[in-house]
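Schema walkthrough. Field components (list of strings):
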Amino acid sequence: MLGPHVPDLRALELLVVVARTGSLGAAAAELGITQQAASSRVRTMESLVGEPLVARSKRGSELTPTGELVVQWAGRVLDAAQELDAGIGALRADRRGHLDIAASLTIAEHLLPGWIVGLRAQQAQRGRQPTDVTMTATNTRRVTELVTSGEIALGFVEGPDAPRGLRHRLVGTDELVVVVGPAHPWALRSRRRVSAATLAATPLVVREPGSGTRTVLERALADLPMAPPVLELSSTAAVRAAVAAGAGPAAVGAHAVRDDLATGRLVRVTVTGLDLTRRLHAVWKGGPHPPEGPARELVAWAARAART
Amino acid sequence: MLGPHVPDLRALELLVVVARTGSLGAAAAELGITQQAASSRVRTMESLVGEPLVARSKRGSELTPTGELVVQWAGRVLDAAQELDAGIGALRADRRGHLDIAASLTIAEHLLPGWIVGLRAQQAQRGRQPTDVTMTATNTRRVTELVTSGEIALGFVEGPDAPRGLRHRLVGTDELVVVVGPAHPWALRSRRRVSAATLAATPLVVREPGSGTRTVLERALADLPMAPPVLELSSTAAVRAAVAAGAGPAAVGAHAVRDDLATGRLVRVTVTGLDLTRRLHAVWKGGPHPPEGPARELVAWAARAART
DNA sequence: CATGCTCACAAGCCTATCTTGTGAGCACCC
DNA sequence: GGGTGCTCACAAGATAGGCTTGTGAGCATG
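Field assembly_structure (string):
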């Protein structure tokens, strides 16, 4: 739960712009509010932090060291907020939008917003009007149908194999990783390596049947005798929470637990003799390259992001 | 700049709690507001997104698929916001705080908030009262002085060497990486490898003299003839922006450009024959282990986070 | 069939934030 | 010297969004 001292997103954005422009008034103009409003906002932010963030002079404003620190932290929040914004923008039914795409859930959740933000930033930097993207988030089969039928020109799908009958390009991989809670025996450094057979014989926390994650897991373990699950949950967040609390091991998308692994809430376990990698593809119909225009740019951007 | 469709942080938090509890009323109770307020907040959020996020029934509420998507994105924002919150909490002069530490800027900016969030989450999970941390952010030399004089029991410093005269433990590394804008010649895949001599002979974008980043760079290139800088800027954000816009190469902390590299705003270049790694240490005085209590826990947490 | 849970609608209050209007300090330039 | 333009701050009034309280309706369960 968030404490009472967190400024809101608009205030954080204002602070970042002040840092960049070096002036409250200029920042206010950029954000379309008056200089007075900006001044007062910064003031309330300072009362939240308890220290001055901006050193005001009669010829502009600089950040204090504390202000620099807060701006760094705020930048992270705003980066995530921009992805949220891009995601919401893609969901919104302003269907005047230029580029209409469909994507499977993993991609829509973890990758597309970042791609959209990056692409739009690049376009803005080159002085072009950023593309509005409209997205349908659904499962891989439905995405393939939409592209095959021509209803949608560009799709993003996941799966072990490249889809047949459509042109495709690799735009990333989604590795399923096996994680346990920090108190689990496998979390000991010496035991962070188990065999596929051991994994299969252990009762796991899993997603509901039919989910992409579960399908991949079951296919990978198909040849081994599998213990029944300890828990069957319908969201990745629920699985993460259950595993962190010690319910048992689980296999989840690497993207979904990046932060948990970094903070130590979950611990990754290596499973020998098991390939849990899914390939993520952009798919389209027709020529060897994606349709000219924003679609091709987005695919290029995604493919480039995948290489890093 | 953020669009007009971004819900505020409290609203995002509410949505996440609704997802977890499966009930508007329960979520409201947890956040200390009335059920009606929660209902109305979710409603306004839905009008921002343009689609229903929550499927209401007379026996609770579930998220719609769109809602799940938004919750995932919101989770990222809230994770960053929690670090901001922890950072602000550490800055605030509620000096009733239990644990008083000092940290160099790189650590305060990029690592400490995460450690504090992680430690507090672990403590809360074990049913203990989370530690309040109070932080002084300053340069490495001053941190060493504060710890040596006994004014502060625990410090975090950066530098090529471990500090002398104090006990220490490695809590991470901060690699300086060389980056260029995407349009720079070095950004071509075939040229992403330059020698130290080439780097030294190239006019760079640098921080002001005396900054940690610049000191490390100059020491690493000390034996080579160095070209004068193209630009000298006083914040990492300014350096990132200048490099992205094509001003020239720069060496910056890896933590600071993680996101830029991921989105392709900046491109990393490998420099052969150059070690730009700084070791980050926790430091204290006295026994071979950090002072008993929260200080020791924080060091243990940080050291553990460093290993992943 | 009462009780308790769910959520929704309506009225009124309250407070945070915005705008407009004004003023003062500093720098630059004619 | 004094105009011009930039900086930020103070004050007063309007607005809007979010809150609470009060109420009611649908569903499940003992």
